[in-house]
Amino acid sequence: MHERSSVGELTQELRKELERYSPGGKLPSSRALVERYRVSPVTVSRALAHLAAEGLVVTRPGAGAFRAAPPASAPAAGDTSWQAVALSADGAADLVPRTVDAWGVTVSLAAPPPGVVEFSGGYLHPSLQPERAMAAALSRAGRRPGAWGRPPLDGLPELRAWFARSIGGPGGTVTAAEVLIAAGGQSALTTALRALAPPGAPVLVESPTYPGMLAIARSAGLRPVPVPVDADGVRPQLLADAFRASGARVFVCQPLFQNPTGAVLAPSRRAEVVRIAREAGAFVVEDDFVRRLVHEDAGPLPPPLAADDPDGVVVHVGSLTKATSPSFRVSALAARGPVLQRLRAIQVVDTFFVPRPLQEAALELVGSPAWPRHLRSLAAELKARRDTMTSALRLHLPELALPHVPSGGYHLWVRLPDGTDETVFTAAALRAGVALTPGRPYFSAEPPAAYARLSFAAVGGTAEITEGVRRLRTACAESLP
């Protein structure tokens, strides 16, 4: 049994057992709990820590664990209705309302109920994460001299140099001085949009695109303007038209394994996209979020747009999170020219710096022999999962169209039959035991059709993928026109 699973199960069992004790009653010793539930001492310690954090038990060193006294009655609820007026008062009629709709993000972050197949997840299943390598890296990092001190505001020089090499390639087109270390891709994107666009300004986005980026833009009071993508990425002529029509000075894109379509920007379009932005006097924010989630059969990858951009048009965002763990939030912002100073200033004001132990652990991880081994095994496993899901969908659910099968990333983008109500389909899928992500949150304007995103990285393995598709058969029979 996985350690985190056993901790949760023991916590639940002990929570029930507490009902047999009066306040102040002593629980069995840790040794007795180890023998009774056949778990490790570490599992017992963690379960008791969970209960202590919930206020259900009190631990006393040398004495044991005791049932806590019941909490005092809750205070009377106050009247917070006044906040509706305060939160809606933007102070200027021309600003975009800053209503924050995080649903499109939380659907990929929240864990589904037990027994539900997680086709909605946006991160690797624990079995795919390099847990031992991360634990070893964090342990080694914690023992480094000065590891718990204040880091340089821009990030550790060695980590900035590593990211610079991974972005600019062996030719060194990106230097460490042009890199800032940030706390994950979402934080880096937030910093970039705050630096490049004032409240009320338009920002060009791919359509469809990552809901988290749309949430960032809207919460900052920006106006997302959609630019359609096809199998070869964003369409340059429509991008040029959107710049002229909107007057935007920022375009946010994912040139590699775009979320959600999986498209890769075609070689013939790469330089053209940068040229169009340059002529519009605009920046391109390159969200290179899954470069390390390439599949085994992908072949050589194109370099980041930032690698071939001497004029500073591209602001690059790259992260280690997707290939490691949702809690390993280390990323890089790369830019050249005066914009770098603005990015640095905003990041310092918002977060001061990324904790040094995490930066030191990132250095230990990417410099260890375990890192390339992990990436190789991950590439093979992602390909196997993608092929399993693709074959199962084509065999059992041919009515769900697959416009594109990517060679990187962690999901498939399926088109639902015309006339399908995404909300009804999503609810039917959950009743059948499958959590998925509907397509509507990926569009900043009216979607051209009904879609769903199915992740194959957040589940336990290929058998669970097959079972999930089987369950979707029931949902389709219930909800599709």
Account of the 3D structure:
The structure is a single chain. The protein is α/β, with parallel strands linked by helices. Helices cover 41% and strands 13% of the residues. The chain has 16 helices and 15 strands. It has helices spanning 3-17, 30-37, 41-53, 83-88, 103-109, 131-142, 157-168, 185-196, 211-219, 236-246, 267-279, 339-351, 356-366, 370-396, 422-431, 462-479; strands at 57-60, 64-67, 117-118, 179-182, 202-207, 223-230, 233-234, 250-253, 283-288, 314-319, 331-334, 411-415, 434-435, 437-438, 451-455. The strands form 4 sheets. An 8-stranded mixed beta sheet has the order 4-11-10-9-8-5-6-7, sandwiched between helices. A hairpin with a 3-residue loop joins strand 1 and strand 2 (64-67). Helix 1 crosses helix 3 (41-53) and helix 8 (185-196) crosses helix 9 (211-219). The radius of gyration is 25 Å and the shape is globular. The model has no long low-confidence stretch (mean pLDDT 90).
Please give the alpha-carbon distance between the first and last residues.
42 Å
Tell me the strand percentage band: 5-15%
Total strands: the figure is 15
Question: Quick one: biggest sheet?
Answer: 8 strands, mixed
What would you call the structural class? alpha/beta
Coarse morphology: globular
| Average pLDDT metric | 90
Lateral strand order in the biggest sheet: 4-11-10-9-8-5-6-7
Helix count equals 16
Poorly predicted sequence stretches spanning 5 or more consecutive residues: none
* Residue share in helix: 40-55%
